[in-house]
Prior knowledge:
This protein has helices at about 10-20, 70-75, 75-80, 85-90, 95-100, 105-110, 120-125, 140-145, 205-210, 220-230, 245-265, and strands spanning about 1-10, 25-30, 40-45, 55-60, 60-65, 130, 135-140, 155-160, 165-170, 180-185, 190-195, 205. By secondary structure, the chain is of the alpha+beta class. It folds into 3 domains: about 1-50, Uridine Diphospho-n-acetylenolpyruvylglucosamine Reductase, domain 2; about 55-160, Uridine Diphospho-n-acetylenolpyruvylglucosamine Reductase, domain 3 (2-Layer Sandwich); about 165-265, Enolase-like, domain 1.
Amino acid sequence: xKTQMIVKASSVEEAYELLNEHASHTVLGGGVWLKRxxxxxxxxxxxxxxxxxxxxxxxxxxxxxxxxxLQSLVDSDLVQSLGSEILxxxxxxxMGVGLRNLATLGGSVVGRYGxxxxxxxxxxxxxxxxxxxxxxxxxxxxxxTKGSVxxxxxxxxxxxxxxxxxxxxxxxxxxxFSILNITIVKKEDSYCIILxxxxxxxxxxxxxxxxxxxxxxxxxxxxxAVRLMEAEISFGTNHSATADYRHVLxxxxxxxxxxxxGNYES
Length: 266
Ligand SMILES: Cc1cc2nc3c(=O)[nH]c(=O)nc-3n(C[C@H](O)[C@H](O)[C@H](O)COP(=O)(O)OP(=O)(O)OC[C@H]3O[C@@H](n4cnc5c(N)ncnc54)[C@H](O)[C@@H]3O)c2cc1C
């Protein structure tokens, strides 16, 4: 990234106006990912003065400001209470404390990275995003959108529903990107199964989820759910793993995850 000017926005509206002045104008989160890109940015807009670094509890929600560093989510009791810690545990797998103190939740979501270990647990916990102009949108809908995001993400909202979660990141070393990640959440009346970094973006194993409904997680039901997941989800090959290897990993860890959330209940 080559920046000609860094501008500190004094309001969200000003940040939005600046962003939309020119195609090359870009919002800076932690700048950790942007810094790696060979892009020329005429104006980089910082949101540092806008008080978007917070984690707040409301009756049935947790609201997390877009400029909240990832490490704050790892350390937060409130975030740990979501889905039996899946979100905080998943984020704890992203590089080391140094990077997590810089990288923000906003940059991690708006980037829509296929390799993300953060998006799948947020998806499974039914997260919503609040943008300055677009307003509130589910994370699921946002991930369907394409192209550059010319809006300011203000906060991420996560419902505080009773749930039990499982997250597994498979990588060559703890500091590598995921070869595959598996997120499973048992909610009050349903299960959510998400495969991420396949190496494409995160997808729901919808047929397995529909089959499970709120059935008990006995061996027969788990076997059928794994079979349906295998039939539905496709995997790809890249420099870190083959499609066949990812398929075997998915089979193994979806089974383990379902067993784990099943055992947690009993
Ligand atoms: C070496 C390295 C290893 C990594 N390993 C992993 C890993 O293993 N797993 C994983 O999940 N992630 C990993 N990441 C990604 C990391 O977790 C962050 O997601 C990434 O750095 C983006 O966060 P950021 O705050 O630095 O965003 P930036 O780089 O600042 O921004 C990213 C994008 O989001 C936009 N943006 C940022 N904030 C806003 C906002 N509020 N409103 C609108 N647009 C916004 C920017 O314009 C830009 O397009 C890694 C990153 C690096 C550099």
